[in-house]
Amino acid sequence: MRPLLPTGSVTRKPDFADHRRILEHIPPGELELSIYDSWDESVVDDLQGLPIVTAHAEKTIGATLSGDRPALDQFAMNCRIAGTLGAETLVFHLWELPDGDRYLDRNLEHLPVLLDTAEEHGLALAVETVPCTVGTPIDNVRRACERDSRCRVTVDTEFLALHGQLDQAHELGDRIGHVHVKDFDPAVWGTRPRRYLLPGEGVLDLDGFLERLPYDGTLTLELSAVGDDGSVDSDRLESAVAWLRRLGT
């Protein structure tokens, strides 16, 4: 697989979302860019030249798709940022709280336009298996792929484990366009502040999962190394880099 480190490991909403933190703290290696709603297209000037392979759209866009004011302009700007910086895939939350997937049909109505916009900027759109309010991640992303065959899936190990669906991920086959890896522990899930578990810190057999998955493309190890005061935990960051390095050999 092609291992990526997320720029979100050194940034965090709302207080530490300044894109310049990426330049200050991110270690060498290929990246997944985390885009925030506080950004505009001027961030491209500073981030140009970074080895960005995938990007993650602002997560709250998905929450607007079930309402009367879908944030399609914001999505288009996210695509322009990602495409200009060289990303090939855009990870996207097609549904998000507060509605979650309660009105998924409304969200799905926007999917062809979202895919058109992504394609205009050279991006494959990969809908993530995020937590659900009424349905399940696997069923929801299948519906998205059935709605438009151009849609791809970002498999998230933690979220699928939360729904008891990790063992079904392989059924997505060639619809898989990206993977997010993080461990899962039901005793930790839902605690605040949000904790991202590195492989070995939870209960999942992630090595076994990846061996069984019919996919050999890009993979991001999701983590946060940002402290409450904005400091960066260099040891945690290095642990993530070491795991990715092992995966890439």
Question: Could you explain how this protein is built, in words?
Answer:
This protein has helices spanning 20-25, 43-47, 61-64, 72-84, 104-109, 111-120, 137-147, 157-162, 206-212, 234-248; strands at residues 2-6, 31-34, 52-56, 89-92, 124-128, 152-156, 176-181, 218-221. It is an alpha/beta fold and 249 residues long. The protein has a single domain (2-248), classed as Alpha-Beta Barrel (TIM Barrel). It has an eight-stranded parallel beta barrel. The longest helix has 15 residues, at 234-248. The chain is globular and about 45 Å long. The model has no long low-confidence stretch (mean pLDDT 97).
Give Rg in angstroms.
17 Å
Q: State the fourth-level CATH superfamily.
A: Divalent-metal-dependent TIM barrel enzymes
Query: What is the number of helices?
Result: 10
Strand line-up across the major sheet: 1-2-3-4-5-6-7-8
pLDDT < 50 stretches: none
β-strand amount: 15-25%
> What gap, in angstroms, lies between the N and C termini?
9 Å
Biggest beta sheet attributes: 8 strands, parallel, barrel
Number of strands: 8
Q: What fraction, in percent, of the residue positions are helical?
A: 25-40%
H/E topology pattern: EHEHEHHEHHEHEHEHEH
What's the number of structural domains? 1
* Structural class based on helices, strands and sheet pairing: alpha/beta
CATH architecture: Alpha-Beta Barrel
Please, what is the average pLDDT? 97
CATH fold label? TIM Barrel
Q: What's the overall geometry?
A: globular
CATH class: Alpha Beta
